[in-house]
């Protein structure tokens, strides 16, 4: 079968290899992957910027497919079911934080960028019926990260005015789709006017271009400030967010694409009684709650494009260059 693997040979660190089809162990199932989706994490692995990288691992955290084989302990009920995969591996017993053994499917365990995947049956969820395989594959990692950042760590309430930053991002768009479904009052930032305009057609009340240094003044004028900001850029944007967060508001970070800030405006931080909060992925119960929310509200993910498996490296390049608006999805057959 074909699989996109991390390699230390050749010009690129990712390569489409021909490898043996895996066999499920006792508690595992064999899933024929129908579609998989890219996350920035996959590009971080390609660039050697992810911890504990192992060559020869099949990348990919997001996937949807059909169960075509069962380990000896797995119920027959799973056979032929259409499923999506929960990419959490070993979250552990504490709902507040992942265990020391925690990792995400696709590094160091083999992931979804393959024609077949073996995975513990407890990682399966039924595919919401309103979604195609390609749409379903776009949901898990971004959806669960957005859900925890917004609903759990951000404590979202209907009365909130929310800022979702970098709306070109997969997690940001998942948050936007959740907010749109809930009738939320939300605004976005982006480095692209075009992406801001698209976000407005999907439910954002307005948007600001973070490349314009004074964007926060417009944001304050238009909105009066935000109760909640969710962000994955970090860097010096942190101090700008402290200018537009309302007193006692929350700023939730689930990434740090722009690195660490040179300094933090400590005065604004303590005087505003604001909270800077970290968030990562979501525990298994939150994953289930996110899928329920998607199903009940018939939420559709934003899909930029669906590419054939042979073009997956081009899809990585587009993600690296932030060209997409929506998830980059790979169709396996
Ligand atoms: N902790 C977790 O569980 C978790 C889960 C998922 C992702 N992440 C992290 O979150 C980040 C985004 O992931 P993703 O998969 O959503 O990525 P993505 O789909 O590739 O989107 C990244 C977006 O971030 C925005 N951005 C990039 N550089 C920026 C900067 N300097 N300032 C402001 N915005 C910037 C851009 O938005 P515009 O195009 O609109 O300008 C870009 O489209 C990555 O760092 C990733 O590792 C963490």
How many whole angstroms does the radius of gyration measure? 20 Å
CATH class membership of the largest domain = Alpha Beta
Q: What string, H for helix and E for strand, traces the elements in order?
A: EEEHEEEEEEHHEHEHEHEHEHEHEHE
User: How is the biggest beta sheet arranged?
Assistant: 7 strands, mixed
What's the CATH H-level homologous superfamily of the largest domain? Medium-chain alcohol dehydrogenases, catalytic domain
The average pLDDT score comes to: 97
Number of domains: 2
Find the CATH topology of the largest domain: Quinone Oxidoreductase, Chain A, domain 1
Question: Bound compounds, please?
Answer: NADP nicotinamide-adenine-dinucleotide phosphate
Number of helices: 10
Q: Give unreliable regions as ranges.
A: none
Outline, from the CA principal axes? globular
Instruction: Calculate the terminal CA-CA distance, rounded to whole Å.
Output: 11 Å
Helix- and strand-based class?
alpha/beta
